[in-house]
Amino acid sequence: VERQMPAKVEHVVLCKLSRRQQVLYEEFMSRSETQKTIKKGDYFGMMALLMQLRKVCNHPELFEPRTAKSPLSIPAIRLFLPGCILLDMYRAIGGRRLYDEGYCSLLLGPLLNV
Hints:
The chain is an all-alpha fold.
């Protein structure tokens, strides 16, 4: 089967590191442990360094995970309705209670704190 396969073609595409990848790379390379391993020249140590650098380049989240933080913070909305409107809404659902068949919790549940 191998003889029937077409010739292997490789394309090398160079792309720049993102700012985060650059920072992770520079921090990793400046660590004292990394510098010691490089000076030592141990084969397995060097392979471990290369694997870490591959993580930085290919999957920075594997190298140093970061939690997503959102600047968006919205306080809960409090809704005050006159009793007559609540009564009309209650009648609109046919007087059903929570967990009754056909009860719409989106309609009254939040308003009645159920």
